[in-house]
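Hi C.,

You asked whether I'd gotten around to modeling the 130-residue construct. I have! Everything is below, sequence then structure, no commentary in between.
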Amino acid sequence: MTRLELNWDDSESRNKLDITSVQAVAAVWLADTKASRHAAMDIETVVDEPFSFAFNGLDAATVIGLFDEIARQFPTVRFYVRGIGEDFSNMWLREYFGGATVFAAGPFDHKVSEHLSNKGKSWFSRWLGK
C-alpha cells in the first residue's frame, strides 16, 4: 500500500487534462502488466485526497512504472508524484515533463546508522566505547 500525492500542471497543454483520461491510460497499462485493475480508481482518490492510502498490492517500482506511462501519454503536461510506502525508507519523488522523468529521488536504500544501533546506550557508555 502506498500513500501518494499527485499533481499536474497542464498550463502548457492545448487541452486541460481530466482525471478520466488519466484513469483510461492507467487502466490499459495495468491490464497490460497484469497489475491490479482497481488501481486506476485509486488515481481519483489521491487527486481528491492527497496522501490517501492507495495502490494496494503494488510495489513502488510498479507504481512508478504506472506514472512513467501516464507521463509518456501526456507529454505536454508536467506531473508531480510523491509516494510513501509501508517501509520507513520507501519514499520517492518523480517529476515528469515531455513524457519523461525530469527529476527522480528514491526509493532509498535503508541503512541503519551506527548511532541508531547504539541508541540503548547512554552517552557516557558510547563516549567510553562500551
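If it helps when you're writing up: The helical segments are 19-32, 39-48, 60-73, 114-117, 123-128.

Thanks,
B.
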